[in-house]
Design goal:
homodimer, 201 residues, alpha/beta, 4-stranded parallel sheet, 8 helices, 6 strands, globular
Chain lengths: 201, 201
């Protein structure tokens, strides 16, 4: 590595450019911006990076990222412990929490089944989900909230087959037109799903 | 600050969101990405941030950002010391260096004159430019390479008036159609400049 000889600002730009979605031009702009930040702000940023890596671990119940043994959602006695919403990643938990409507529990798989990318079911947190359901008889429904993609559908199908023998209700998020969307811009599959899943009004 | 109670990942997302051009969604995505990075990569990133702030200072000659007393360009004996290209910021030096055509020196103003924003000439590195020109009789030309904006033009005009009595040739970057640009999409002022500055072929 010739990095030790490179300018600190170039080294920082290269670090920014390694992040997803940040190109070299943006990375340079950010690196220059850092030189104009206050010393204590840069220190806070630097420490936040280290903390996010070192202090973050998976909740022993739902596998979501947290800095405690059990995450705040699993620890919240006011939440409905009879429903588990299964999602691909921590970002999906944040997205669903943002709706403010869901009051149940979560289970984070940390990926979706994708044999092409070498992601087999044993690489995901499916074991932990099964163990959770087997040890807690109060769970009555598992909502499969994986993405409406090939991998998301396959994962939902795989898990629902595993859970059938246990006798638990497995549901899937509804597919249809996005609210505020325009019918003529909807793709064929979405529109077909919207017709298929039509509701009486 | 309630930050000490916040999740490390939320704290990091907030840090990313303080950077220019990074919204909260992107910041969250980046924060989650950091948790998936290797420990040593996060440490390198964290250190690069601190280094960029603490080790970077202004070159005592051209005022460009560097980690040494004199920057590599000012220190390069092969460069043409008779020409100084005056730019707004370090990014402009990088942009001009990228062309590979310019072999002279630089002077970085660290801003443009903008009385509305409280940026008066004394806040810029204009003193240092004058001192440089007065102490070095070998300088024959100063190229004003500030942006073609109101502030850029005003700064170029201000400096050129300061330098006139010294008897140094002051030039300004050419304005015209961007290479590869389409004539009908050029704005009126650019097109007018392109006609005004037309060259015989």
């Amino acid at each position: 590595m010739a990095e030790s000889n490179a300018l600190p600002i170039v080294v920082l730009a290269e670090q920014f450019a390694r992040l997803p979605g940040i190109g070299m031009k943006t990375a340079q702009r950010l690196a220059y911006y850092v030189t104009s930040m206050k010393q204590e702000d840069v220190e806070a940023f630097s420490e936040a990076l280290l903390n996010a890596k070192s202090k973050v671990r998976c909740c022993s119940v739902c596998q979501n990222l947290t800095d405690k043994e059990i995450c705040p959602i699993c620890d919240d006695v006011k939440r409905d412990r009879t429903v588990i919403c299964v999602v691909e990643g921590p970002k999906d938990v944040t997205a669903i929490e943002r709706t403010g409507e869901y009051k149940g529990m979560y289970h984070v798989l940390h990926g979706l089944i994708s044999p092409i990318d070498g992601i087999t079911p044993d690489k995901l947190r499916i074991k932990q989900l099964l163990a959770r359901i087997q040890s807690d008889t109060g769970i009555s429904e598992v909502i499969m909230a994986t993405n409406p993609t090939v991998e998301g559908d396959a994962t939902a199908m795989y898990i629902s087959r595993l859970l059938k023998p246990v006798g638990i209700k497995v549901t899937r998020l509804a597919f249809g037109l996005p609210v505020g969307g325009i019918l003529e811009y909807a793709d064929e599959i979405t529109l077909f799903k919207a017709i298929e899943n039509r509701n009486e009004i």
